[in-house]
Design brief:
Order of helices and strands: HHH
CATH architecture: Up-down Bundle
GO molecular function: metal ion binding; transferase activity
Modified residues (Phosphohistidine): 81
Oligomer: single chain
Cofactor: Mg(2+)
CATH class: Mainly Alpha
Distance between the termini: 64 Å
Structural class: mainly alpha
Number of strands: 0
CATH superfamily: Phosphotransferase system, lactose/cellobiose-type IIA subunit
Keywords: Magnesium, Metal-binding, Phosphotransferase system, Sugar transport, Transferase, Transport
CATH topology: Methane Monooxygenase Hydroxylase, Chain G, domain 1
Mean pLDDT: 92
Low-confidence stretches: none
Binding site for Mg(2+): 84
Length: 110
């Protein structure tokens, strides 16, 4: 039983790391679209990234809920690494909106 919970946490943590990598790739592609003045495509990609980021946050919430319910969630280096990736990609997302807005303004001046 304990091994099953441990495997479940590891699977959740690995999903977070994988999701973060996917989200980062989508965000960087959105910025590349904006560089080419393809703002509709950039916006679509940001919306896709947002959906995936929400799903990643749901995994985080599940882990936090387990701990809040009194179930011990072992804090491992892997879990800290996953959290770091999610925080990093959240920052990427916020900055991407600003960068895309700057490219939009630049395109309007041409």
């Amino acid at each position: 039983m304990m091994e099953t919970k441990k495997n479940s946490v590891i699977e959740s943590v690995m999903a977070l790391i994988n999701d973060a990598a996917t989200i980062k790739t989508i965000i960087l592609a959105a910025i590349e679209d904006a560089k080419k003045s393809q703002f509709t495509a950039a916006t679509t990609k940001l919306e896709e990234a947002d959906k995936k980021l929400i799903a990643a946050h749901e995994i985080q919430t599940h882990l936090l809920s387990q701990e809040a319910a009194g179930q011990k969630v072992q804090v491992t280096l892997l879990l800290v690494h996953a959290q770091d990736h999610i925080m990093s990609v959240s920052t990427y997302r916020e900055l991407a909106s600003e960068i895309i807005d700057l490219y939009r303004r630049l395109a309007e001046t041409k």
